[in-house]
Amino acid sequence: MTNKLRTNEKVDQLIANFPEQTHNIVDSLRTIILDSSPKLIEELKWNMPNYSYNGLVCYIQAAKNHVNLGFFRGTEILDQDPNKLLQGSAKLMRHIKIKKLEDIQPKTFASLIQEAVALNEKEE
Known about the structure:
The chain has helices at 9-16, 20-36, 106-121, and strands at residues 41-45, 48-52, 56-62, 67-71, 94-98. The protein has 124 residues and is an alpha+beta fold. It has a single domain (9-121), classed as Aspartate Aminotransferase, domain 1 (Alpha-Beta Complex). Strands 1-2-3-4-5 form a 5-stranded antiparallel sheet. A hairpin with a 3-residue loop joins strand 2 and strand 3. The longest helix is centred in the N-terminal third of the chain and has 17 residues, at 20-36.
């Protein structure tokens, strides 16, 4: 269950308008993200949920046929991705493409999110 004290009302409204399958995936990812670190702050930026702590950490991007769990410093956590889930070709960003609820790997995703938070902690 998502911690309502840490959720953002604008993100709630955005998610409420998604089709059921997208809504379920986004809601599940949101819970995993917020449960991964009490330090993360949820915001609506670029019309998608973004999570930050001492800088941008990750985001959820809903597309027509999939949802991306993206990492702003994804290239720096590639070594912590034993399942090679992270994809993309941007200079720094990487994402995990999720097409159905069953594609979600809570422990793996939480571990990657925690690694991303740790990167930003080093910047303090």
